[in-house]
User: Fold this.
Amino acid sequence: MKIRSVEPFILHVPVTGSQIADSTHTITHWGVVGARIETEDGLVGHGFTGTHAHLASDQLVTRCIATCHAPLLIGEDAGDVHRLWRKLARDPALQWVGRAGITTLSLAAIDVALWDLKAKAAGVPLWKLLGGQVRPKVRAYNTDIGWLSIADDQLVAGARRAVDDGFTGIKIKVGSSVDRDLRRLEAVREAIGPGVTLAIDGNGKWDLATCLRFCRGAEPFDVFWFEEPLWYDDVKGHAQLARATRIPVALGEQLYTADAFSEFFAQQAIHWVQPDVTRMGGITEVLQVCEAAHAFRLPVAPHAGDMSQVHVHLSFAHPACEVLEYIPWIKDCFTEPAEVVDGHFRLPQQPGAGTTPTAAAWQTLRRPTE
Ligand code: MG
Assistant:
């Protein structure tokens, strides 16, 4: 499994409708920014990070893949995933310019591609390589019905439709105004009834005082978790909020390292743990977070920067993973889409990590990498 080449790629995939918004972002496309790694015996692996499809910043990641990480990989054995992770993550020159951000997103894409290769070489889907199936089903929750840009009546209609389609969990965005968001939360809870889990996501917009005011109003509606209530790195603020409200606190999609999660665990500032293989240093580092969360008896609900193509494997294989996000934007770009049937993810069957693009996606959605 000697590595012959490492090539970056960018795909820009349209979101549902023409655009969506949360409290901090408005986007029209999702960026699938990654690495295609080929070995001398002809195996090909793909891995990617997730972006907001801003070409200039996507090209910072592809340049890091091509000019900084690729030279460290050529000639190496692709099967040595953990050793190669350390080689890239602890490279003295790269560590100096970034232990988070662009270098980590590049590392994420490469690490996922290496796991994809390893699973393909073994002829098994990734979940088997990660220890096998620990649960018969992975429950999906639907995020795509709950954007802040969706009008109130459409939000309620979409929530009802998701439940009719078999989802037993949904998530809606908050972070506009306390009054508007409470009104929408109440309307959705009334529409879906008490048997469906209803999470909310603030995308780090509010301060502690606003969160406390919102939570007092939201507590009667049985909120499953409040995701990113505060600025992403604010450990102390999340700890204060977690003590002050009955609503569980969820976060992690903007944390780049296992060390960052450790601090939230130590300060009891988190109830639901949301690492993302596309944001951290890939599967290798997310596995560390899952293990640590499990040791703290905290459930994991991976954030789906990969739209669950990879996380579905992790969720079938790791005992800490309780529930998984569903957003359908990019699934049809892959030879084995992450599919939900009756509110649960289908168990992947193809060898690899679920990251092999279809020929059609490769031809029609690619953008220049420099
Ligand atoms: Mg979120």
Remarks:
- Residues 22 and 148 are 5 Å apart (CA to CA).
- Residues 102-122 form the longest helix (21 residues).
- The chain has a mean pLDDT of 98.
